[in-house]
Amino acid sequence: MAKQDEDLRPQDDGEASSRAFGARVRKLREAAGLTLEQFSQRSGVSRAMLSKVERGEKSPTIGIAAKIAHSLQTSLTELAGGGASEGAVVRMRRAERPVFRDPETGFERHIVSPATGGGRVELLYHYLPPGVSTGILPGYPAGAEKQIVVTIGNLVVEFKNAKEYLGPGDSLFFEANVEHGFTNQTAEPCAYFMVVSRHA
Q: What pTM value is reported for the model?
């Protein structure tokens, strides 16, 4: 792995992150008045898996986490511990950066926005190990947009009827209200920054 790539990947306590993620999921589910069974039906994720996620016993894959966030009408950033911050100047140290890690694939989603503009704008850093795909993820609500710039390796952005191939320094804009996914088809790591914007 390139030294540059290692520098962008902070250390993280996976067990503590899983517990915190699960606690946020449970809090939002209960606030929505959903039983685990209703939550399962709405999200398409098994009741057993949701129960383990809420108790912090299992870290969800990126696909399951995206379904959970979508069904709770929130963002993965919120579930991972990021969110709006108050103040004219907000600093985030690298060690404070919330990170979501897919335990099966090694995919990492780093929240690097020290403030998210009330949830309207997020700056993210994604790391895809060699040969890894996020799978197809649910679309965002209407009005959401994504912009990507690849920093390391090669990335394939997949849509229902199209694929975009990006290399280092290449960028891409798309309306994010459609299903899409990210794939690293190579034997080298891939990393890219992403800006997600949502219209109020």
A: 0.74
